[in-house]
Amino acid sequence: MSPSPVDTGDVTPSGGQVLSYPRGGPTALRMLLGTQLRRLREGHGISTEDAGHAIRGSHSKISRMENGRVGFKHRDVADLLTLYGVTDPKDRESLLDLARQANTPGWWHQYNDVLPSWFEVYIGLEQAAALIRTYEVQFVPGLLQTEDYARAVIRLGHPDAPAAEIERRVNVRMTRQRRIHNGPDRLRFWAVVDEAALRRPLGGRDVMRTQLRHLIHLTEANTVTLQVIPFDAGGHAAAGGPFSILRFTERDLSDVVYLEQLTSALYLEKSDDIDRYRHVMDRLAVEARPAPATQGLLEELLDRL
After folding, report:
1. The Cα angle at residue 271 between residues 240 and 121, in degrees rounded to 5
2. Are residues 66 and 34 in contact, defined by beta-carbon separation less than 8 angstroms?
3. Given strand 243-247, what is the order of strands in its sheet?
4. What is the pLDDT of residues 204-258, one digit of tens each?
5. How many domains is the chain built from?
6. E strands within the chain?
7. Where in the sequence is the domain holding 185, given as residue range(s)?
8. Fewer CB near the terminus (10 Å): N or C of the chain?
């Protein structure tokens, strides 16, 4: 499948365009190529320092390439393949073609005027993921938000932004949601949400009522699992705040833990960190109300609003 973005898409009720996109996108291709290059390097016992020197760079550049965090220059990949003993023309061309495809901009790059670079990284990972498990304490998770609720949340973070910028940010969020609803390889999304996020009427009561109805509808989707941690649960495992764990279909790609901060984000990939957050997420799922009970709880909150 071509990783080139598709320039046409649906139109949201507010008039903004929601773009189509390829499965996985360029981030997945970069991660796959990076994994291949790491295997070749390690298979030949070459250090990241020596590999970096071969491409006129540093060991940190090699690490970023192997993690799929940067684009690939044709010359760099060609020189690394030579260093790693890949001389067969077909093998070389296959990997070089993968590098060319991985450099194709994702659909979200056209929004780089409103998206910080650290969040563009996350969107790329989100587009490549097969499963995302997330914990949220303050807001309804972005992939489950209605347009009006998303608009209210975005205005909180950008109170001085002009209306056109707010709408571009809303369009990004709505486009991201398409991975849950459309296509043969839809994203599976498992969210554990604190009850406080569902009681906070962002945007006003009418907006929140619509948001709760939307969540009730999503509980019937086979790609969404939604659990709520009620107030009476007391303290729970995720005292440190919200986080997400992204899992990918390709066996060569390890999970990534995403921690968003006010002006930046952390991406954790070490196995010890990932195991710790998996354990916390598993405990949250146990401490929360079972998923089959979510619809009833949402209906109760809707009646009280």
Report:
1. 70
2. yes
3. 224-229, 188-194, 131-136, 243-247, 256-260, 265-268
4. 999 999 999 999 999 998 999 999 999 887 666 666 689 999 998 877 778 999 9
5. 2
6. 9-11, 17-19, 131-136, 188-194, 224-229, 243-247, 256-260, 265-268
7. 113-304
8. N
